[in-house]
Amino acid sequence: MELKMPEISETTEAAVITLWHVAEGAHVAKDQDILEVTTDKATLDIASPYDGVLIKISKKAGEKVEKGDVIAEIQERGR
Amino acid sequence: MRIRDLGIVGYKDAIDLQENVLRRRIENEISDTLILLEHDPVLTLGRMESEASIIDRAFFDKKNIPVIFSDRGGKITYHAPGQLVIYPIVDLREKKRDVSRYIDFLEKTMVRAFDGLGVAAERIADRRGVWIGGKKIAFIGVGVRKWVTFHGACININNDIAPFSRIHPCGEDWIKVTSVREILGRAIEMDMAKKVFADQFIKDLEAEYGIKNAGNI
Question: What class is the A2-76 domain?
């Protein structure tokens, strides 16, 4: 499943990925914070919506992301 | 909403306590909490900052003022006793999940609180923080975990603002800063300042987010 950048604000267009808490290949749990993004004055943790394995990081630390951008791919458990 | 006034506290102790309150709020063990404190002298760098914004490192080293990288948003700022720091731990999970709106709210409530102190502060479009006469008097850097807020804002009340000239505040070389003491020409009671900011925050939080004050628990 694609993990898309969620909406964090109606008015803030873009954020920057500051760090990934997990690496490709890691098991991730639903609701586990797996990366952090930052706007000009706020940092936000983004959680995995699924149980599974993080098979691909599509946007690396330092890259700008907007709502709806695919930032990772997670293979759901049992699929 | 409950209020915790930590007084003057070391940076790490304050952050450890905040982490504990944040974790317990996420687990719904406690209600929203407004942490009020003054940090011992410290330079903190937010996620988007580098040490290049410290102009005069020797000035801070000579005074044994530590430089700490923080997980808040924003860039560099200086904290010291006499500066009021507010860390609102507020659960937005069932509210409007909009980080810009929350920062707008923080700025607006601080402008009103300054008014209560007799200081005519303002917001400036496309610039974050709170300003007076083109100088910055309050600074914002927040964190959001599971849509519960942490970190927050710092407000120059009585603190010496000279150290700000040894850094690029917020990573910008043009920003000048001021304080309530500089504007009014006298120091004010910190307890009074805390009460004005806390009361305004609680009132505005209810108006903006419908979060009621349950008193000091």
Answer: mainly beta
